[in-house]
Design goal:
CATH topology of the largest domain: Rossmann fold
Strand order of the largest sheet: 1-2-6-5-4-3-7-8-9
Helix content: 40-55%
Structural class: alpha/beta
Order of helices and strands: HHHHEEEHEHEHEHEHEHEHEEHEHHEE
Number of helices: 14
Number of strands: 14
CATH architecture of the largest domain: 3-Layer(aba) Sandwich
Number of domains: 3
Shape: globular
CATH class of the largest domain: Alpha Beta
Strand content: 15-25%
Largest sheet: 9 strands, mixed
Distance between the termini: 55 Å
Radius of gyration: 21 Å
């Protein structure tokens, strides 16, 4: 794309009063970007050209790629939305934008430890089965899903985080390390200009992108009026599958998933429940037969068919098992790979226990691929 065209797009979409629908309406009326800008200028003050130039310079300096609606890298699923973002800011592996199989995992910010463990376990299993986990990097279920995916594929699992801030703004700040890990192994994505801070109105907009990017949405713990249910309903409107993890009717955070199940969402207990549905959508059997597998480091047109290997990760471990592994971790920190070898556990069991300990607040990740015990 010519740099002038990119500037036109950034200038038009950042003009006050011009959202995605208005953007496309202008283009439909006049047929080209230059005339669309002139049409917009007749009705409103245009976003300054100089500011658009600064935006492009800043993106280049940060290594952020600006992907527009007419770019071949733009996600095909998003183009089906009438309010598809004209501009996406991407930081990381842009080849993940058109990944063939992906699932959104969303849920409560104030999630229970059990809910976070389920989300991380399912994300881990899906990633091992070459299904991409997509979420919003919020506290609670979102963060747990991203962490589970990152622990997969020998700690280099890919995941996509769609942000409600500028792609250069980690939010919440406590997820900064998670943000950095996703940037290095997966993809950070936003439609918002660089530097945009968190605002409540931005998150519902973010949710439509999460739903559109994926083949289905899984809800793990959510209130009946939560953003997670909005994402699920957007997925339904887009003809996507909706999955929900059931919970006790006495737990308010189970009200959302339980309601979705009553309305026809697929009751989900593990990753296989999702994989089986995806296999039907792809006209293939996944469990115990063959699966569509696409290694995360290969382009989309290189697809291999191989036997599906089930990954068994215990939902909960005994207290004795957790304590035994915790005894091997120092306050100064130990290398994860060395800890795995020392523990004698299988990789799946090891990372399941690591996640349990992390969610229980007993350990934390440090730079340099280390895990350390938390004092207290």
């Amino acid at each position: 794309m010519e740099n002038s065209d990119l500037l036109d797009i950034v200038q038009l979409i950042n003009t006050d009063g011009v959202g995605p629908v208005t953007f496309y309406n202008y283009l439909k009326k006049v047929g080209n970007l230059g005339d669309a800008l002139e049409l917009a200028a007749q009705k409103r003050a245009l976003y300054p050209r100089e500011m658009a130039e600064i935006e492009l310079e800043k993106a280049e300096k940060l290594g952020v790629q600006i992907i527009t609606y007419n770019d071949k890298r733009y996600p095909q699923n998003l183009l089906e939305l009438n309010d598809a973002p004209p501009v996406l800011y991407a930081l990381g592996r842009t080849e993940l934008l058109n990944y063939p199989l992906s699932v959104a995992i969303v849920g409560a910010r104030n999630a229970t430890i059990g809910g976070r463990k389920i989300a991380s376990r399912i994300a881990y299993d899906l990633t091992e089965a070459d299904v991409l986990a997509v979420s919003g990097m919020a506290r609670g279920i979102d963060g747990a899903a991203h962490k589970g995916a990152l622990y997969a594929k020998s700690q280099k699992g890919a995941t996509v985080a769609v942000l409600g801030t500028g792609v250069d703004v980690p939010y919440p700040t406590e997820n900064t390390e998670l943000y950095n890990n996703i940037r290095d192994n997966g993809l950070l994505l936003s439609e918002l200009p660089l530097g945009t801070a968190a605002q409540i109105s931005n998150f519902p907009r973010r949710n439509r992108i999460i739903a559109a990017l994926t083949e289905g949405t899984l809800v793990v713990e959510a209130g009946v009026h939560s953003g997670s249910l909005i994402t699920a309903k957007l997925a339904l409107e887009q003809g996507k599958e909706v999955f929900a993890v059931p919970g006790s009717p006495l737990e308010i955070r189970s009200a959302g998933p339980n309601q979705l199940i009553k309305e026809g969402a697929l009751l989900t207990e593990n990753a296989d429940d999702i994989l089986n549905v995806l296999s039907m959508r792809q006209n293939q059997l996944i469990k115990e037969q063959k699966t569509l597998r696409l290694p995360l480091d290969k382009p989309r047109n290189q697809v291999n068919i191989s036997a599906h290997k089930e990954v068994s990760i215990p939902l909960t471990e005994t207290a004795d098992a957790d304590v035994k592994l915790l005894d091997l971790i120092s306050y100064e920190g130990v290398d994860i790979d060395e800890l795995l070898r020392t523990s004698g556990l299988s990789q799946a069991d090891f990372f399941a226990q690591i996640l349990d300990l992390e969610f229980a607040g007993k350990i934390e990740r440090h730079a340099g691929n280390k895990i350390a015990k938390i004092k207290g």
